[in-house]
Amino acid sequence: MEVILIQDVANLGYKNDIVKVKDGYGRNYLIPRKLAVIANESAKKQLAENLKQQAHKLAKLKDDAVVLASKLEAAHLTIAAKASEGGKIFGSITNAQLSEALEALGISIDRKLITVEPVKELGEGKATARLHKEVKAEIHFRVVAEKEAQNDNAAQQQENEEQA
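-> structure tokens emitted (164 positions)
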């Protein structure tokens, strides 16, 4: 069965894609949840017309995503986490923590767009942000112990006071 996606569906496709799915998945999951419609001739013609009208809007969205991707790749994140003496952190670094750290730098991004492998130790890490259908960005970050982060902040405050 061919369907036209109305919204982005993880591991299947993006909005306005025509995808082939099993009949049961389409009828029982995608269509009732308003995630897709059946791809008949009239729906395909309507999709083509809508895509023509939205072409310039989509180009602008892609350009904005490229600019945001360059900001993300240039950003240097430091995330403080509670850690043991051996360098293991309690819990793990999540996409929500990365989103908050980016927000502190003035870069607003939804946490659902960030994919990060579980980070369980202090050190360097990287995550991927899916900003657009064709644009992905890597986010590099460093995980430090909370004690180190407090010492770094105190040192920076002293330097700022000395400069003033």
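The domain at 2-62 is CATH 3.40.5.10 (Ribosomal Protein L9; domain 1).
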